Amino acid sequence: MSTKQRILEAALTLFNDQGERAVTTNHIAAHLNISPGNLYYHFKNKQAIIFELFLAYETRVLEYLSVPDDRPLTAADKVNYLKDVFTGLWQYRFMHRDMEHLLNADDALHARYREFFQLCLEQVRKIYRGLRAVGMIELNDDDVDALALNTWIVVTSWFSFLRCNLMEENQQDITLEMLWGGIYQIFALERPFLTDDYRAEILRLQQQLSPKPDWLS
């Protein structure tokens, strides 16, 4: 593995575990047992590392959201979209833990993120159109647009919701199980649009993948 890739992997681990604000380039270099100068040879500052990590996250999410051209969508596809997107959210959780701070600190990253948002939103629309085409959901084009946007809002703001509403005063860690609760909320958004032919199957898949969290009871 190249030194550049080692730096990115170490930074991702430290950012996820400790939060981006608590980690400096010196921390990353020490973690890898390399000199700060060696790190700066590959990245001029921490913002450059964050930008590169975002590009990797962007690529991964857009791959997760790709819609097949050669076959109709299935209920399994719908579940996999949710699993994959929330897995990506977990793997790059530092970004969504403090997204506003990251974007305000880097105009180039902010511009790139806005483009990414539009691409993701269109992919989510395509997914819902595909689910409508096979008769899984019933909704008009305006509903597709609204549901796609609401789904993406839940995905990207879920960390903030957890930290603001569910974390104890001195508790810093959000668990994967807590994150999985966001999948339940996406199912809840979609539930009114399910057709009778698919309702039982989708609700069964929801129960298997993400049952109602205890803290919603």
Automatic annotation (TrEMBL):
Name the InterPro entries on file.
Homeodomain-like_sf, HTH-type_TetR-like_transc_reg, HTH_TetR, TetR
Taking the record's annotation, the residue ranges forming a coiled coil are none
Pfam families xrefs: TetR, TetR_N
Q: What region holds the HTH tetR-type domain? A: 1-61
**DNA-binding span(s):** 24-43
* PROSITE patterns per the UniProt record, alphabetical: HTH_TETR_2 (PS50977)
Record's keyword terms, sorted: DNA-binding
Family annotation (PANTHER family):
HTH-TYPE TRANSCRIPTIONAL REGULATOR RUTR, HTH-TYPE TRANSCRIPTIONAL REGULATOR UIDR
The name this protein goes by in its record: TetR/AcrR family transcriptional regulator
* Species classification: Bacteria, Pseudomonadati, Pseudomonadota, Gammaproteobacteria, Oceanospirillales
